[in-house]
Amino acid sequence: KYIVAGFITLGIFLLGLFLGLTIEGKRVSYIESESKKQNLDFTSLQLQYAFIDQLSQENNCLAVQKTFEQNINNLELTRIRLENFDQDATLNKEDFDILKNEYVLAQIRYWLLAERTKKLCDTDIVTILYFFSDETECPSCDRQAFILTYLKKKFKDKLLIFSFDSKFDSEPMIPLLKITYNITSYPTLVIERNTKNNFQDKDTL
Question: pTM here?
Answer without folding.
Answer: 0.68
